[in-house]
């Protein structure tokens, strides 16, 4: 289970010695405090000082990024799978499709009925497996059906990529997933120094099924990012 970081901890990670200094700077930049941001559910767009990564080709489609965003804390309910990392490119898409076709209707009162979340949680980077949670967003975790799991994603500074493919979203298969992750790895390698991608902790994809227009689909991909100070 992921836990939400304190504002003080986030302030220190961002290079501030005092919590109040970070809060004042945050409010000056975005018009609300970090606490207000968490409770509002808003996603705060963070403009990096330069373009970190360009767009890249993925199987004839494109991935754009990054967008640096503050992700507010949110709750997910879904079905948890323990998946070997070596099998993740095939097993995760299969689990996602089975959940969406057969079990999403069992999640009580989803906040976004047409949006799929796939959360990968790496409890220990030394292990050969991860937990994958095909899921939907809910207001709270007070009503988790039998056989389902709940998880809270903490408020975090994340980097986001946008994949646009000229196919149905259900065709995001092992081949396209591998190409997408390879592209992200290449993009990350283009900028070493100030930012560190922490996808070895957790990351998630988000698919709005309503976006598909009969020709193109979109998938958003988010992972923790840390600003490194030298």
Automatic annotation (TrEMBL):
It comes from the Bacteria. The keyword Nucleotide-binding does not apply. Residues 1-40 form the HTH araC/xylS-type domain. InterPro entries: Homeodomain-like_sf (IPR009057), HTH_AraC (IPR018060), MarA-like (IPR050959), Tscrpt_reg_AraC-type_HTH (IPR020449). Keywords: DNA-binding, Transcription, Transcription regulation. Pfam families: HTH_AraC. Gene3D superfamilies: Homeodomain-like. GO terms for molecular function: DNA-binding transcription factor activity; sequence-specific DNA binding. This is AraC family transcriptional regulator.
